[in-house]
Amino acid sequence: MGLFILRRSGIMILTALCLTFIVFFLTNLYPNLEKLAKTQGNFRMSEEEVDSWLTNRGYTQPLFVKYGQWLGVLPGYVIEAQDGTIRGKCIREGIAPEEASSFCGILQGDWGYSTVFQENAGGIIGTALALTGKLMFWVMVLMVPSALLLGVLAGMREGSMTDRSLSTVAITTTATPEYVSGVILIAVFASSAVGLKWFKGTATQAMENASFENFFLPVLTIALYGMGYIARMTRASMAEVMTAQYIRTARLKGVTFRNIVVKHALRNALIAPFTVIMLQFPWLLNGVVIVETLFNYKGFGWTLVQAAGNNDIELLLGVSVVSVIVVLVTQLISDIGYVYLNPRISVN
Are 101 and 153 members of one domain? Predict the structure, then answer.
């Protein structure tokens, strides 16, 4: 198992480097850099002034050099301007240039500076992740048990009225995007125009003081979409297990239907849904982009939209690093858990 984890970790690191380099390359295309220069300088800047602005801030260096500096494996640039001022990647206000560190990248905990929020990108991402983590926690609490219950009930008696009804509900929720279900839920349950103003307050208020009234709708919007997918996978797995030979043998021995489901079928039926559940975490990062923007909940998804919409390169790169790490780590945990749940799989 140790060699398996080590091998997967090596692949994970290599994948992370490739993905972050692609994002770095796309964000550092010249049109984006030109827009950044004019946004931070003057929209009427000439091409010479744009090139000068970019050169003085290290943006015109070779791509691999900039990527190495951003990672923190190469020393940061130091440029002396025509007016005698010294500017460098690692030079900060209040620190003499000769006292500044040579390396200041992601590996050193320096996530860059947000040009939109005028703060360190690391602090912004940390705050946004905490808010999204709270949202994702309650989504999983609502989504996973409900989906597993629906899937098991539907798969216990394949083809029955219960199976068809629950499968229809699962397909309907999965086929409805978050931006549609979110608008419907707001219009029906939170709008005074309809008359069912059951949920008072906004998700923005839930950032500091979350309650059932101001936090349930965004949680439900995300949970509904993922719930149907997990329920369908659980139903298919449960239906397959219930037709297995050892289940038939247990029935012939006179084992009660309840014991067959709980003691024999359930564990094997949850092997496939476990992988699906773990892969919901990367999906949730995409789902919160829509829901957090719709409900004005300033978490990770909202931050991603703001960074992309305002060409905030440093913040966008930091968000991409977190997204890549979350996807790869959850896949690693999923692989390890799958091996433990299914002893037939060999990791040698």
Answer: no
Distance CA 281, CA 214 (A): 23
Exposure pattern of 222-254 as b/e (b: 16+ CB <10 Å)? bbbbbbbbbbbbbbbbbbebbeeeebeebeeee
Give me the torsion for CA of 222, 116, 69, 16, rounded to 10°.
Answer: 10
User: Within this chain, do residues 98 and 137 fall inside the same structural domain, yes or no?
Assistant: no
Which of 64, 83, 108 is at the close of a domain?
108
Q: Which of 86, 108, 130 is the last residue of a domain?
A: 108
- Which residues, 6 or more positions from 340, have their beta carbon under 8 angstroms from its beta carbon? none
160/266 same-domain check: yes
Average pLDDT estimate for 101-120:
86
Interatomic CA distance for residues 288 and 273, integer angstroms: 22
* C-alpha triplet 16, 22, 26: angle, nearest 5°: 145
Mean pLDDT of the chain: 81
> Which two structure tokens, joined as six digits, stand for 135?
């949202």
Q: Calculate ∠ Cα 177-179-184, nearest 5°.
A: 100
Q: Is the pLDDT of residue 84 over 70?
A: no
Q: What is the CATH number of the domain that holds 171?
A: 1.10.3720.10
Among residues 183, 321, 165, 290, which one has the least CA distance to residue 226? 290
